[in-house]
Amino acid sequence: MEYKSSDISSAYLRSRKIPSTACAGCGLGMNHKIVIQAIKELKLAVEDIIWGTSIGCAGRQTFGTWKGDGVAGTHGRIYAIARGLRVVLPPNKELILTVGDGDAFGIGLNHLIHAARSNADMTVIVNDNLGYQSTGGQYGWTTPQGSKTDSSPYGMFEHNLMSEGMDVLHILKGAGATFLARHVSMDGAWAVDTVKKAILNKGFSLVHMTFPCPTNFASKELGSRDPVKIFNWIKNHAAPMGQEKDDTIWVTGIYHDASNSRPEFSRLIHETVEKIRRTGTL
What we know:
Layout: H1 5-11, H2 28-41, E1 49-53, H3 56-62, E2 70-72, H4 78-88, E3 94-100, H5 101-107, H6 109-118, E4 122-128, H7 168-175, E5 179-184, H8 188-200, E6 204-210, H9 214-221, H10 227-236, E7 238-240, E8 250-257, H11 265-279
Parallel strand pairs: 1-2, 1-3, 3-4, 4-6, 5-6, 7-8
Antiparallel strand pairs: 5-8
Helix pairs in contact: 2-8, 4-6, 4-11, 6-7
């Protein structure tokens, strides 16, 4: 990935949140830069994008960071807000949402599913630090099976959305999402290319990106807050699709690409309303 922090700062981000507001060693800044690099390579300007954020670590890092227009939604509501914005915004405006795993796959899952169902044109980046790290490190919807956390000192044993063959991306595919992918923050330029494809899809896109949390997850599961240890642990447990090993947790790459294959939500709304105005019938 080739970029200069100063270039990104001056072009896209407010200086008060650069390089990051996250804990020392946190990988959230890496995920954020992947998205910014994708925007830069697509030659999108600040005024081309409305940036939406949610709660938790991901929300704090990205809220108010974007130099242009932005919106924040509390507790899983940003997807419903974004669907409403999609109807009133010009079609050339890009909606990018940076959210956390709890917001997307927990309290916001119902709204997320309906955004996918309607194929509303937005790109959702789910920044996953494997649990509820901003509230102490409790296990969550994508915590790896057996992991020790603040609320699972003997190992997380519940079924969740990333255990025993289950995968939240399968749910979203069934709901109608037209672009789905998964990466870890170490994927760098490869992840940038994927995010670019997600943005170019005129429909609902989601990229699930795991990143290291040394403060809570690593301290409980690995017994150390050394960023290098959690960085390597995630990297060693991720593998590109088709290259999985027995200990692979995150299979990375594009899971589903049906870009531009379904009517987009706002376009369908406007075309239908116009038809009713002209003919008085559907």
